[in-house]
Structure formats: C-alpha cells, structure tokens
Specification:
CATH superfamily: Isochorismatase-like
Oligomer: single chain
Order of helices and strands: EHEEEEHEHEEHE
Distance between the termini: 13 Å
Length: 202
C-alpha cells in the first residue's frame, strides 16, 4: 500500500475537543496520534477532516431549551443526538491536536458548518444527500482506495467509511488508529454496519 497514488489516508476529526480534556472527549483519543503520524509517509494523498460548528448549531443540546446532552431529538433529516457544545469555529477545541502532523495534508475538509444540519460523514451531511466535495476531490486525484483513521469509530469514522463504501471506494479502517465513544453499544453496531458494507476492519 505504501505510496500508491490511488490510495488516500483520511484522518477524521483528530481535534482537541474529541481528546481527553475536551468538550466531547473520546476515551484514549490522544493515543492514536502517534499511529496516525507514523502512517502518513505511506500515502501519496492525505486528507484531514475537521468538525467546524457555528455556536448556534442545531445539534448542540444548549440550543434546545431543557434538553440534556446525549438525548435524542428529531430533525427534518431524522433522529439527531444532541451533543455538548464542541468544535466551535475558531475555538481551541476545534483546533487539531498540536502533536498531530498536519503539514503533510493535501486538503482539509470542514464539516458541520451549516447551523441547521449535523455532519458525521466526511462525504455527506446527515441528510445523506448534501455533499462535502470530498468525493469529487478524491476522484480527480485518481484515488480508488481509502484508509480511514480518527475519532470517533462509532460516529464520524463509521459514517465516513460506510458512505465511502457505498460510493464504490475500497475502505480499510485500522482499529489501532481509531477510538470510540461507545454510547449504549454504539461501537458494536458501528463495526457490524461497516463490515456489512464491505469495510475491512484491520
């Protein structure tokens, strides 16, 4: 796989708020950084994704009167978890981890910047139809296979990997370079769904 021009490394949401001490910390989220840095030299195409929410984002529990973080609500596009305020545009929490090597990335895809809709996947908003532009970029670079790493396995990695597989990319998720929130068994569900769509769990 080393330096194949048709394979891209997609590094998902390795940001301060998703690491220990952050507003929506994923247990052990900081532990993947060394793995991800070590992998980067093996890929000709490297992409970072960045959660990038306005303060009035509809997925924040604080923007719904009386709502508790991690409760569910209905949005026009379906069920939505209401999250603690996190990854607000321009905040320290939204910044990439300082120990993550970011200079080698060819592209940064920011997602979740539309107030009314959340975005877990690197490819589509949560309505599953509004594209981020990542697919077109990868196609124009001649990419056919993706290795996806980052945070969190059961949300943004899961939705990105499944969407990529549906779009016809070959997808591998190395689990030592991901960490999960595992909310109410969400990790097991995510792993099963990824396998069902042909994602290789390495």
């Amino acid at each position: 796989m080393a330096n194949r021009s048709d394979t891209a490394l997609i590094m998902i949401d390795i940001q301060n708020d998703f690491c220990p001490g952050g507003a929506l910390a994923v247990p052990g989220g900081d532990e993947i950084v060394a793995h991800v840095n070590a992998m980067q030299g093996n890929f000709a195409v490297k992409v970072l994704t960045q959660d990038w929410h306005p303060a009035d984002h509809a997925s924040f529990a604080a923007n719904h009167a009386g709502a508790e973080p991690f409760s569910l609500t209905e949005m026009p596009y379906g069920p939505q978890v209401l999250w603690p305020v996190h990854c607000v545009q321009g905040s320290d929490g939204a910044a990439f981890r300082s120990d993550l090597e970011t200079d080698s990335a060819d592209l940064v895809i920011r997602k979740g910047f539309r107030s009314a809709i959340d975005s877990y996947s690197a490819f589509f908003e949560n309505d599953h139809t509004t594209p981020t532009g990542l697919e077109g970029y990868l196609r124009s670079r001649g990419v056919q296979d993706l290795v996806m790493v980052g945070l969190a396995t059961d949300f943004c990695v899961r939705f990105s990997a499944v969407d990529a597989a549906k779009l016809g990319f070959g997808v591998t998720v190395p689990q030592n370079a991901c960490r999960a929130i595992d909310m109410d068994g969400s990790l097991a569900v995510a792993l099963a769904e990824m396998e069902e769509h042909g994602v290789v769990l390495a």
